[in-house]
# Entry
Amino acid sequence: RESGRAWNLRIGRNIPNAAFFDRCLALGISGVICGITTFECFTGDRLDANTLLACLRSCQRKGIPFVGLDWPFREFGLRPSRRESFLNIDSERIGNLAAEVLLRAGNHSSYGFVGSYPGCAWARERGAAFAHGVRKTGRRNVRIFDGDPFMDADGVSAWLKALPKPAAVFASISAVSFASFCAASSSAFACL
# Structure
């Protein structure tokens, strides 16, 4: 909703902690959006509840609106309020929707999924839903790249080249899409 106020935006890419948030809040920011999924995927670790709650409490003390992305807010005993919202990504729905779109894009010899950082929970869920969505139509040639697409461009390239063509590939996030298809661009791929 338009508030008629200018936004004071700061983007922080460091590990979120209460001290970081306190520094941001001192700059006069209008609100905080804190996503934990990205941190989890790039480090393989979940942020602990105490760190997350300390960040939220910093905002509450200052009356700053807070949005938590992919927070296990029910596990923390939190409820959305006027000042706090919690949004969770539906990885299963995203995987199913990707399967539907690529199935409508044509009849392919194979379907593939390139995830994110190995062990990333949402990427695992997204890939499983994608594979299930393709297989429930009777197509069996679904392959999952199980390496690290950020660290193994040669592996992604070889995996893509080995897929029976024409192939439809779902890359879990745009950075993976870009890296993957730079490594092995071909007109034999339907991209999503």
